[in-house]
Design goal:
transmembrane; DoxX-like_oxidoreductase; transmembrane helix; 8 helices; 188 residues
């Protein structure tokens, strides 16, 4: 097997793994599958951690994860898929950041790893074992990578920045109640 073949197989495995996990998490938010809470429950959680309106935030996060993950797994529209998934995971990382790095303590380790995998796939491309390759890279042009990542970074910065400002503007007792509620939701 040549190095080129190994690269394609490696990208396929990474796409299937990261894309599958992202898609599953998105369907938890959208449909309540795999033990998720659906739009209603996820929307309530989103509100509790400062992403408002909650249902719209849950829908956006669910679509970015389920759609981006599915497209990554298929290797289709890889720059946009990777950027969408990375943006959703950056938003999740912002929620988990106060808990430190490690996932065992509720930290951002897991979300950041998925964000980096999705970004890496957007940059590296899907490889030859992909729908993008089969379709002649119609949805995977070089200019699409910086465009998709740049637009997503700007939108994510705006959403997370707005959330952070909203949390800073809350009174200290409201913040304490919010963090206690958030911690209880993570323990479920």
């Amino acid at each position: 097997m040549s190095s080129y073949d190994r690269r394609d197989l490696g990208l396929l495995l990474l796409r299937l793994g990261a894309g599958g996990v992202l898609a599953a998490h998105g369907t938890q938010k959208l449909f309540g599958w795999f033990g998720g809470h659906g739009i209603e429950g996820t929307g309530q959680f989103m509100e509790s951690v400062g992403y408002t309106p909650g249902k719209a935030s849950a829908t956006a996060a669910g679509l970015a994860e389920a759609g981006g993950g599915t497209l990554l797994a298929l290797g289709l529209a890889t720059p946009a898929a990777g950027a969408a998934a990375a943006g959703a995971m950056a938003g999740a990382s912002a929620v988990h950041a106060p808990n430190g790095f490690f996932n065992a303590e509720g930290g951002y380790e897991y979300a950041a790893t998925l964000a980096l995998a999705a970004t890496g796939l957007a940059v590296a491309g899907p490889g030859r074992l992909s729908l993008d390759h089969a379709l002649g890279h119609v949805f995977d042009r070089g200019w699409m990578v910086p465009t998709a990542l740049g637009v997503t970074a700007a939108a994510t910065a705006l959403v997370v920045g707005t959330r952070n400002k909203r949390l800073r503007d809350k009174k200290p007792d409201e913040q304490e109640a919010l963090f206690a509620e958030e911690e209880a939701l993570f323990r479920e």
